[in-house]
Amino acid sequence: MKKILIVCTGNTCRSPMAEYIARDIARKKKLDYEFFSAGIAAQADEVISENAVAALEEIGIDATEHIVEPLSKYDIADFDEIHVMSFAHKRAVLNSARSIRNLHNRVIVINTADPFECDIEVYRKCRDSFIKYYESAIS
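Now predict its structure.
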């Protein structure tokens, strides 16, 4: 089983959207993947963005039960790949786990803009970029 951690800033928009989309695509393709998401600056009292939930619901994915998780909850060494939204996130992941050999090669930058506090259209564009990415990235 391949394990992938998806990381953004707060784990309220991009990384949970990517997690649920990637999980759905892997399930439909009958692939043996596990997806998790976390935020570098995630706060325990935060919840997934309403627009993220709405954008996912439009394509038949229910993310209402998503629990915001900080990156520190996970042992990065447990993952085959870490997908991040920006080069700043990549630096943060690499800095948090300096002792892991060859980690640099396992951290993949997706380069997706943050839709936080934007209208639903921006969330839809973000969602659609994740669909396009994961349709080709996992096989």
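The chain has a mean pLDDT of 96.
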